[in-house]
Specification:
Layout lengths: L9 H7 L3 E5 L6 H14 L4 E5 L5 H11 L9 H25 L3 E5 L2 H11 L4 H12 L6 E6 L2 H7 L12 H16 L7 E5 L4 H16 L2
Parallel strand pairs: 1-3, 1-4, 2-3, 4-5
Helix pairs in contact: 1-9, 3-4, 4-6, 5-8
Length: 223
């Protein structure tokens, strides 16, 4: 019997409890739509879930988010300042929310995490990955995702999905976003066994993409 498109198979329900999943990908990848669908499915399945977003997710983090994503007229934020602000928000989120939720056996789902920093400030921005690694160790203190789902879609499709009211990161232009996509593809290529970074084909209709999520999660967690 085929599983309805927005329901989780029984094997996944037990496998996902206590896990830390990240939904990530370039702007316009459809990540936010799939995140909302997946959250509804896990809650309907009775899984206790903690939802967080980056930057943000705490009172401190939301103030950092405002500084990062608003268009700044008074001055241009330096790239290292940008990267470290993301890490500061991440440090607060890991300590205040994510680590306690995992200790309680909850499923944690994050809208972006350190993978975004590698793609945006690293590959696209030019900060050496080694510097991001060092900052991440300080910020995360061992709080690592069990898997990061990377929603991959061609640049033209992604551009067609972007909200016309762009935030500062979305508005950086086509060349920048091509580098961002390359950054995510580099992460996927660095993990050929699909243990840390799970590629999700995000080019299709929402129900099809949701099915792709279930497929990669089954391959990763269901034995």
């Amino acid at each position: 019997m085929t599983t309805p498109p927005h329901e989780l198979p029984d094997a996944q329900i037990s496998a996902l409890r206590g896990k830390f999943l990240v939904f990530d990908g370039p702007d316009g990848s459809g990540k936010s739509t799939q995140l909302a669908m997946f959250l509804k499915a896990v809650r309907s399945a009775g899984i206790e879930v903690t939802e967080v977003r980056e930057p943000g997710g705490t009172e401190v983090g939301e103030k950092i988010r405002d500084a990062l994503l608003d268009h700044l007229d008074r001055e241009t934020m330096s790239l290292r300042c940008e990267m470290l602000l993301y890490m500061a928000s991440r440090a607060q989120l890991c300590e205040q929310v994510i680590a306690p939720a995992l200790t309680q056996g909850k499923l944690v789902i994050a809208d972006r995490f350190v993978s975004s920093t590698y793609a945006y400030q690293g590959t696209a921005g030019g900060i050496p990955i080694s510097e991001i690694d060092e900052a991440a160790k300080i910020a995360m203190q061992g709080t690592e995702p069990d898997a990061t789902l990377i929603f991959d879609v061609d640049q033209d499709t992604a551009a067609s999905r972007l909200n016309p009211l762009l935030d500062r990161m979305e508005a950086k232009g086509a060349a920048f976003h091509a580098k961002v996509r390359q950054g995510y593809q580099d992460l996927i290529a660095s993990d050929p066994d699909q243990q840390r970074y799970l590629r999700v084909d995000a080019a299709g209709k929402p129900d099809c993409v949701f099915g792709n999520i279930l497929d990669v999660l089954t391959q990763r967690f269901v034995r």
